[in-house]
Amino acid sequence: MKKLVSISLFLLLALSWKASGQIITSKEEAVEKGLYSYSEVPGSLDITSGSSGSQSSGTERSKKKKKHRSKKNESVNEPTTQPVTVAKKEIELDENDYGFVSDFSLENYTQIQIVNNAMDFEGVRYRTGGTTKDGMDCSGLVFTTFKIFDISLPRSSYEQAKVGEEIKLSEVKPGDLLFFKTNRRKKTINHVGLVTSVENGEILFIHSTLSLGVTISSMSEEYYTKSFAQANRILN
Predict the structure, then answer these.
(1) Which residues of 120-129 are buried (b: 16+ CB within 10 A; e: fewer)?
(2) 118, 145 in Cβ contact below 8 A?
(3) Is the pLDDT of residue 168 over 90?
(4) Which segment of 64-68, 77-81, 99-103 scores lowest on mean pLDDT?
(5) Domain match, 197 and 122 both
(6) N or C: which end of the chain has fewer CB within 10 A?
(7) Residues 6+ apart with CB under 8 A from 119
(8) Which region is the signal sequence (predicted)?
(9) 46 is in which domain, residue-wise?
(10) Count of domains in the chain?
(11) Do 207 and 119 sit in the same domain of this protein?
(12) Together in a domain, 228 and 142
């Protein structure tokens, strides 16, 4: 069909030009004389007047369209030249990562793990002589926690106070032990707690009490300030 249309147009041009004394014998000749032009775009056909300068040929327009499409494709496929910035997440170890411990370092790793394990017992009820989650007393909490790390301590708070190095209260760090004399009549060490945090001068420690079981208290509380006896460092 397309070929038939092309032949018919060619004959029409030839007959019309013959009337003016010229005979067109081929499509090439018609193009040379400015009577016929074509486009490379399928379905596009252009018949011009004798003056070829009156409008752009189909071939030129086709080239422009191709050039336009080429630029469009280049803009779509153009690689990104802007640098990709990956935000670095700074890892900070604070009290949320290690219970109440905020001064983590490789040097005090064991102390931190001891504190973490002691914190697992928080909420366990008080039980005289107890050393498990079914119930434990103050020295039982300390004894069981250190035993997890194969560190053997005496069973009573009185005997535990004889182990390690005695230090000043102002020098304590997480993992150190605090000893108290809560019995006014005997006036001997009968209670022990494990330091969990030292923040802005406030010392927190975990211990087991008759009323609350395993809980956390502060050395700023008057009761513990008055009954404090000494502090010991088991691990250096």
Answers:
(1) ebeebebeee
(2) yes
(3) yes
(4) 77-81
(5) yes
(6) N
(7) 99, 100, 196, 206
(8) 1-21
(9) 2-77
(10) 2
(11) yes
(12) yes
In a domain, 82, yes or no: no
Higher-scoring residue by pLDDT: 28, 52: 28
Q: Which amino acid is at 64?
A: K
Q: Are residues 46 and 145 in the same domain?
A: no
Within 79-144, strands assigned E span 131-132, 135-136
Angle at 109 between CA 108 and CA 111, to 5 degrees: 65
Q: How far apart are CA 104 and CA 163, in angstroms?
A: 24
Confidence of residue 184 (pLDDT cuts 50, 70, 90): confident
Are 160 and 216 spatial neighbours (Cβ–Cβ below 8 Å)? no
**Averaged pLDDT, 24-32:** 58
Shared domain check, 121 and 206:
yes
Of 35-39, 77-81, 164-168, which gets the smallest average pLDDT?
77-81
Question: Residue 74: enclosing H or E segment and its boundaries?
Answer: helix 58-77
Quick one: how far is CA 6 from the chain centroid?
68
Could you identify the residue written with the tokens 């009290």? 95
Same domain, 60 and 125: no
- 162 vs 189: CA distance, rounded Å: 10
Which helix (H) or strand (E) segment is 157 a member of? helix 157-160
Token couple for 140: 């039982």
Residue 74 burial by CB count (10 A; 0-12/13-18/19+): exposed, middle or buried? exposed
